Amino acid sequence: MNRTGLGRHSGIDDASGDPLDGLVNLFDIGIVLAVAFLVAGLGLSVDKTTNKIEPRTTTTATTPTPQPQPGATTSGKGTSLGTLYRLSDGRLVVVEPDGRTRPVTP
Prior knowledge:
Strands 3-4-5 form a 3-stranded antiparallel beta sheet, with no helix packed on it. The protein is an alpha+beta fold. The chain contains 1 helix and 5 strands. A hairpin with a 5-residue loop joins strand 3 (about 85) and strand 4. It is about 20% helix and about 20% strand.
């Protein structure tokens, strides 16, 4: 049976493509955007005092200064920083040789 009168002269052309090809491209774009948002989100942190999102700051690792053990003797050259006192409320204060005081922050 020949259907030339209905406008179908041949079979469906394979060059017309699959209608779902565009959907695959949208899926690829979605994956790329999801990874981009993940990377951007990992670079942010929340400041607990203000509850605002801020860029994450990197801290460089410093080597800790070795502290002498209690009762151990030490030697070396240096200058006197003053005398250290612990107040009754637990704060530490340094009294410098010229009489000025300053708090010690841990």
